[in-house]
Design goal:
Cytochrome Bc1 Complex, Chain A, domain 1; alpha+beta; globular; six-stranded mixed β-sheet; 2 domains; 12 strands; 526 residues
Length: 526
């Protein structure tokens, strides 16, 4: 599949007045815009060049409109405006149709419109059978250029986001709570600090006029990247670009792209323990890395990460050592960039690109009595990876696996389109093609050199969600060997290695150890 539908279907069309430039590394750090992030700030004429993946035999058409607006653009004290604006489009009405009328209209077409919001960009996504494309497109277009800004929609969507923070994140989803806590640790005082949904107080402070103003300032024609995929007619992509460029204003310079500061330095092993009534202990470990898909080191690190902790597969060493051999929990994975699973798949969700990234380890909930052991084991495994790297045999097996596995990222035209748009953000070739091309020429020495340059196990932020946080904190600070118990018999080799793990030293920075009640998380940002 990857070999037949790569660049052959990737048709890049450039608007007459669009100046496309590569958006790599340093340029996108400064610009904070999107798709052509190296565009001069004075260029307010048009959207970035659109991307079309036309497959004439497909009965479906997907539209993705990426907007250069994210949670980094939320005004101070009103974290959540970007998410609320996105939901005003994706879960709201048009001037002509209320939200209820709109959903009633879409239902018989089996069509969908939604919004995906992240730190740097927001993406409006629509999908419809081509037989209904014309009336569907009019609704899709009107939602972007002239949303209804209905008070009832605003209140419903604000309640949705508030409940997502207070009830779902803090109440029911300990794993995501751990991940968002890690994000807050890594980016304290940084524009990335708040969740993509905002903060509790920030959402409470937002008015519908704030949403109107944000839409007017950020949803401008120079901040859009239009993508269309599937069985759409000739000329449709150009039509969408013209329509949006003609209906949306140019930027007035009042809302410039935000320059991102460097993330803070992690010093030693820092602990943030979130105390809540949890039946098991969830942990996320990480540190910032100055690597994105635009950097050469990203691709050797992909191989290293797949070997170490490929998401939800037994390809990773973490998964095999912690779950497979010891049964400590359901899964243990690692990542070299922010990872959001796309629905029920095991693949990364497209259209959440970021100019800054971090390495992380996700330890899924572990019984409380084994949690300290699991933390020690994960840190030790990372240290072993940094020290020893991959063997030639492990490298060859992982490279072959990853080249083939990555082709599954783009099983649908919608996902293929999303990755093409992300590649524009990073200024690279089509992502899956780039993986294949880079990995085919890669050597084990290059992978191990990238590991030594970019990864380490000394300075780690550790987010812990657990039931008796102070007791767990004291256990870790004591330095005493960790207890581990198994429900089934394990071999002598495992027990012998366990003795090393139980006493593996954790260089905890006692000045950066904090216990926080769950009710205080994500109330506001620093």
């Amino acid at each position: 599949m990857g070999g037949t539908c790569r660049r052959r279907r990737l048709v890049l069309r450039v608007l007459a007045c669009a100046a496309l430039a590569a958006a790599c590394g340093g340029a996108s750090q400064q610009a904070g815009g999107i798709p052509s992030s190296s565009r001069d700030a004075s260029d307010t004429g048009s959207a970035a060049a659109g991307i079309g993946l036309q497959t004439p035999n497909s009965p479906l058409v997907t539209l993705r409109v990426m907007v250069g607006a994210g949670s980094v653009d939320d005004p101070v004290g009103k974290n959540g405006v970007n998410a609320l604006t996105a939901l005003t489009v994706g879960r709201g009405g048009t001037v002509a149709l209320t939200y209820q009328e709109l959903t009633t209209t879409l239902y018989p077409w089996a069509a969908s419109i939604g919004a995906q919001y992240d730190k740097e960009v927001t993406t409006i996504i629509g999908e419809v059978h081509r037989d209904h494309l014309e009336p569907f497109y009019k609704i899709f277009r009107d939602l972007i250029v002239a949303p209804r800004f209905d008070t009832a929609d605003f209140e419903r969507n604000r309640d949705f986001l508030t409940n997502a923070l207070a009830s779902t994140l803090r109440g029911n989803d300990d794993e995501e709570l751990g991940k968002q806590t890690l994000n807050a640790m890594l980016y304290k005082g940084h524009p990335y600090e708040a969740t993509e949904m905002g903060s509790e107080r920030g959402l409470a402070a937002i008015t519908i006029d704030d949403v109107r103003a944000f839409h007017a300032q950020r949803y401008t024609r120079d901040r859009l990247l239009v993508g269309v995929a599937g069985g759409y007619p000739d000329g449709f992509l150009e039509r969408v670009e013209r329509d949006l460029a003609g209906a949306l204003p140019a930027s007035d310079g009042a809302a410039p792209g935000r320059t991102l500061p460097s993330s803070r330095a992690v010093q030693g092993i820092e602990l943030l323990l979130v105390e809540k009534d949890a039946i098991a202990t969830a942990m996320s470990i990480g540190f910032p890395i100055d690597v994105t898909r635009a950097d050469d080191d990203f691709y050797p690190l992909m191989v290293a990460n797949s070997y170490f902790g490929e998401h939800r597969t037994f390809n990773g060493r973490l998964m095999n050592q912690m779950r497979g051999l010891r049964g400590l929990n359901y899964g243990d994975y690692s990542y070299i960039e922010n990872f959001i699973q796309d629905g029920g798949s095991t693949f990364p969700q497209p259209n959440t690109p970021r100019r800054q990234q971090f390495f992380s380890i996700w330890i899924r909930p572990v019984p409380h009595h084994n949690a300290a052991f699991a933390l020690r084991q994960a840190v030790r495994e990372l240290a072993l990876l940094v020290e020893h790297g991959l063997s030639p045999a492990d490298f060859e097996a992982t490279r072959e696996y990853l080249v083939n596995y990555s082709k599954l990222y783009v099983q649908t035209t919608s996902r293929r389109l999303g990755y093409a748009m992300d590649s524009r953000f990073y200024g690279t070739e089509f992502f899956v093609d780039e993986i294949r091309a880079r990995l085919e020429s890669l050597t084990v020495d290059e992978v191990n050199a990238a590991i030594r340059r970019r990864l380490q196990a000394d300075n780690l932020a550790v987010a812990i969600v657990t039931g008796d946080a102070e007791v767990f904190r004291d256990e870790l600070l004591s330095g005493a060997p960790s207890v581990v118990t198994y429900n089934t018999e394990v071999g002598e080799a495992i027990l012998a290695e366990d003795e090393e793990i139980r006493s593996y030293p954790l260089a905890i920075n006692v000045d950066r150890v904090h216990v926080v009640p769950v009710g205080e998380m994500f109330v506001e940002v620093s």
